Structure of histidine kinase:
Amino acid sequence: MPVKLRITLLFCIIVFVILAMVCATVFYFSYTERTQNIRTRLTNRAITLARFLGQKQVFDQDLIRKIDSNTTLSLKDKTFQAYDYLNNKIYSYSDAPADTLKVDSVILDDARVKGTIFFRIGKKEAVAYHYVNPNNRIVVITAAYDEDGKDKLRQLSNILWFSFLSGILITFAGGYFFSDRLMRPIRKIADDINEISAHKLAGRISTGEVKDEWHYLSETLNRLLNRLQDSFETQRRFVSNASHELSTPLTAISSQLEVSLQKSREAQQYRSVMESVYQDVRHLSKLTQTLLEFAQASGDPGGLNILPVRIDEILMSLPAEMKKTHPDYLVVLSFDDMPAEEQKLIVFGNAELLFTAIKNIVSNACKYSDNHKAIIKLKAEAEKITIAIIDSGMGIPEPELKYIFQPFYRVNSTSQQTGFGLGLSLANRIIKLHKGNISVTSTPGQGTEFIVTLPTAKF
């Protein structure tokens, strides 16, 4: 069932219940009021008749009948009867001469006990009233058909039914109209999304001018499409650059081997070719390892081995690691604000990945500094740990700062240096994976400062 029809039916059900309750309430109180009114009028007439009959010396039965015949109660088919304590009928009057009530003795006895009772006899409503004075004990029964009251009640019932059915029809029509208006933006959003594909991600959903829920939904989907477009573009650039980086050493290896096999050569020449191929293979192996690390850092954090890690221990292992691979690199640690509590130095994460991320930043700082020196400062606060890596190198131009974390991107001034352009991108992915952040400030010709922020572990 379409959502538009479901909304309409739900709206109709709610209105149906409300109208039914209102109409039933109005009819109930009108019915109760009519019943109470006829009972009051019949009771008053019974009391008056009983008093007349109790004064035989003043009112004889013929006079009482004349009074009854001239009494206008706006009631139809009136019948008045009276019984003594032996259940003998002592008085009777009816608008129609042949109209006589057959009253059961149980009703008379019940009236003597309760004083006044109400009952129905045929289509008439009746009251039995027990009247007692020093000279008489009689039960007076007055009955009549409330034609006017029932006609009014019937008219009210017809009005309520008409109002009820008209209200339901109007509600259905109005609900269908408004639900159609309500769902129209959804259809428009769906049509806009259908126009967007993996090869056409530039399209966006029209948000409209009204700041409502549909505007919020459209903006949310547009932000999602922006992220998807960025991801697709990043993936395409990554695949293109990775293919280029992988094909370059493979092409060099293939070309050198092909040339060396074209004719017989001396052992020294073969050795020279093998050394060149070996360098290309090492380059290819290192690139493959870096790509594997990049893929691991781009994965799901749930698949990592997450443990409490002391960040100062990772930093203290960096100077020796840098010296092992590059003897001329110098890493200076500055832990001036070390906290007394060990917990402030612990983060939840993967020690190997965190070491790789910080090592890549430190390695770049040493590589692009004339003195090959990097300074690492550690600051631990209540809920975060801040690591600053500072160098005095060539710096990064302001326009290129926003691109340095993209895979395979290299600053123009460093294009002559060896590398793949994956170090900072890998570091950024790893830090993001640990719910941290990397920011950078740089002044060309003076140096660069990277700030790594990680949340402390909460036990």
About this structure: The chain has ten helices and twelve strands. Residues 3-54 form the longest helix (52 residues). The first strand starts at residue 76 and ends at 83. The domain at 213-297 is CATH 1.10.287.130 (Helix Hairpins).
